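Hi W., the coenzyme A complex you wanted:
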Amino acid sequence: MKKKESYKNVADSETIKTEVVCPNDANPMGLLQGGRLVEWMDIGAAVCAQTHSGKICVTASINQVDFNAAAKVGDIITIFARITRAFTTSMEIFVQSYARKVLAEKKYLISEAYFTFVALDEMGKASEVISLLPVTVSEKKQFNAALLRRKNAAKKK
Ligand SMILES: CC(C)(COP(=O)(O)OP(=O)(O)OC[C@H]1O[C@@H](n2cnc3c(N)ncnc32)[C@H](O)[C@@H]1OP(=O)(O)O)[C@@H](O)C(=O)NCCC(=O)NCCS
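Structure:
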């Protein structure tokens, strides 16, 4: 078993962010704008990456953004950000967003995306991050899939 100082777990940086859709976040039909949702997801993912690495991080890429369902003015949006894998200086963060009507108990998935963040040192150069040790079956699945996604993205360049 590795020493805990040499790695972190997914749960150590899991981030939950809550927003309420206001008229300024919506289109003329009162539906939440995709760009505003991605902005909120980016902030949640940044907090997750910075908590894992203990460093300032910047968004390097946003991939596989899916908008599965719409949300409306007044809905409560909950954003869950979890690290899937730490590479050398970069980390992949999986973000899922859910919407719920104020008086409803049930939330439903509205969007998913994979963000890549790079940790920076004081000079603004890419800087090494601590390893991630996945624990659960789904964490291990995401950990392995992250490497495939990275290889596939590299092939497209
Ligand atoms: C992301 C950034 C720091 C990378 O800097 P760089 O000097 O090109 O760094 P390197 O080529 O040494 O790569 C560093 C890491 O970034 C990753 N990376 C670089 N560009 C990437 C991209 N487009 N997508 C995913 N990962 C990327 C590399 O794979 C590498 O990861 P690793 O160390 O884990 O293997 C730099 O391009 C940057 O500052 N971009 C602007 C970020 C920003 O301002 N974002 C906000 C949106 S405007």
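The first helix runs from residue 34 to 53.

W.
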